[in-house]
Amino acid sequence: MYGKAINGNPPRDTIIWRYRGRGVIGVYYDANGNVDGLDTESPEYATRSGIHVGMRIPLGICHRVAGRCQYRWNGFSFSNSGGRRYLEWDRTATFGRGPIRVAVQLMLGDDGAVQEIWLGRYLHCSWGDVVATTCKQPPALPQPPAPPGLRYCRRPGGPGNFLAASPRILCSVARKVEAKVFSPACVERTRCDGYGFTCLAFWDGRYDRPFSYTHHAVCRDGALRIEMDEG
Question: Is residue 148 reached through a cis peptide bond, with omega within 30 degrees of 0 on the bond before it?
Fold first, then answer.
């Protein structure tokens, strides 16, 4: 395209490869070497409709949406969700009937003019919008077994949270005990009694820190046991 990247091969301290032509273009590649995104801060480049760095876009009239003003221009919507320092015009384009979408952002500078143009490819999948090469979800990661002698009432989530109990304990009871432990009445304590169980805050081999710190509890009623972690 433009020869070698001007910021190293591979680039130094960044994932963006920058190439020089009439101006400078930044390129984002995926793991297979396909282009995922482009950006430029150079006014030398323009789209067929004349969009270029340095231009000013009028806000136009206010369109009321859910009680708030929404400004539109040539298919773009104005966004100021990041405050005055992060103003931009956003648009999404579709390629045919497939899942490929392109997000276009026109970032504005302090003077209100377009400072940077960014285009990024993503997939509009049935389960969400993702930056990926396919809508096929990766296989679930293998889960660790429940603590010895227990079975899961809630399997581990992303942050490692789980709820496990002895086979003789109904999961509905385990959930009630969990709710009691992390209720306002107990969460700042190191011990909590509820539904016949005594629960202790435990983490890193210590029992002297409250549930609000450990996010972990071990509960016993004789030989019956419940263990929980809130992640």
Answer: no
